[in-house]
TrEMBL record:
This is AB hydrolase-1 domain-containing protein. The chain crosses the membrane at residues 12-33. Gene3D superfamilies: alpha/beta hydrolase. InterPro entries: AB_hydrolase_1 (IPR000073), AB_hydrolase_fold (IPR029058). The keyword Transmembrane applies. The keyword Membrane applies. It holds the Pfam family Abhydrolase_6. It comes from the Eukaryota. Residues 124-268 form the AB hydrolase-1 domain. Keywords: Membrane, Transmembrane, Transmembrane helix.
Length: 312
């Protein structure tokens, strides 16, 4: 009798687990919830910190200039311009005398002029991953690390995509690409930094954004090729990622369903954000190699941890 009771308990437990998983998968077909799983934009990780006071993350006074960019479709993107340490030291007195906090007109700030007016200045466009803001986790230490090889001339510019942090709007594949294009065009047109002096550094979902960006720029009537792009933990596309992705490294998304190819194919059709990075990268490289001899070419670096449980 005890054995029967135990077997019944196991059966009902498995049935309940299966039902909850089916409910979870069903919820993921709802666009709003699907977007939250992909972007995790509701998880800011900086709830009790003011992202307009970067000194909270160990930066010197006005080493970082917070400001907003406006996209063509009317969204406001929160951004940080991070000065390299040695350049900051050379101008510390003047920089410290400026007002601290959000710059209403960033072009009037000394930090912007130091970037624009130095023909040797180099710039890293930093496109972060899912969840958090530009002040979350290891991102601020990463900004400082960007300029180590040339601490007097490598600037960093980071943004929160629409729907993230203090930026307005709601994230989408088209929207995040628009945000990246807005950033790149602002840098080239307002700060007067040519693509040959720009490198893109991207992580996780940011790698998908960066590949869409460089593909877009390469397909224009007058192609613009950046000096390089560094991809940290990239993925082929969202459909491939969901097969192996586990939330917090433990809860599988579609791993059990992957054993049923037809069901997996049907569910993949319901994924709104595709982010076809593999396809974008392949076409980008083909286009670059088809360009005339003497073109600047391309440089793509991929960095990936062997024990990355989010993106294997």
């Amino acid at each position: 009798m005890a054995l029967v009771t135990a077997l019944q308990s196991i059966f009902y437990g498995l049935l309940a687990s299966t039902g909850l998983y089916a409910l979870f998968i069903g919820l993921l077909t709802i666009p709003v919830l699907q977007d939250q799983v992909i972007y995790l934009h509701g998880v800011t990780l900086t709830w009790f910190q003011d992202v307009n006071i970067p000194e909270q993350w160990g930066f010197l006074r006005n080493q970082v200039t917070p400001f907003f960019l406006t996209t063509p479709d009317g969204e406001s993107l929160h951004a940080w311009h991070i000065l390299p340490l040695e350049l900051y030291r050379q101008n510390q007195e003047a920089l410290s005398a400026e007002l601290r906090g959000l710059a209403l007109d960033v072009k009037e700030r000394l930090s912007f002029k130091l970037l624009r007016d130095d023909p040797s200045s180099l710039l890293v466009l930093y496109l972060h991953g899912a969840a958090g803001t530009l002040g979350s986790g290891w991102r601020p230490p990463s900004y400082r690390a960007m300029s180590v090889s040339a601490p007097h001339r490598i600037h960093t510019l980071a943004i929160d995509y629409r729907g993230f942090g203090s930026s307005s709007g709601y994230p989408s594949e088209k929207g995040l690409l628009t945000d990246a294009i807005t950033l790149a065009e602002w840098v080239m047109k307002e700060a007067k930094i040519p693509p040959s002096r720009i490198v893109i550094f991207a992580q996780s979902i940011g790698t998908a954004v960066s590949l869409s960006l460089i593909h877009h720029m390469a397909t224009q009537p007058e192609p613009a090729l950046f000096s390089g792009v560094v991809l940290v933990a990239p993925f082929a596309d969202v459909e491939s990622l969901t097969v192996t992705y586990r939330i917090a490294g433990t809860v599988p998304l579609l791993d059990p369903i992957a054993k049923f190819p037809r069901l997996l194919t049907w569910l993949n059709k319901l994924i709104i954000a595709k982010w076809p990075s593999k396809t974008k990268l392949a076409d980008f490289i083909r286009r670059c190699e088809d360009m005339d001899q003497g073109s600047p070419g391309y440089d793509v670096t991929i960095i990936h941890a062997e024990d990355d449980y989010d993106i294997p």
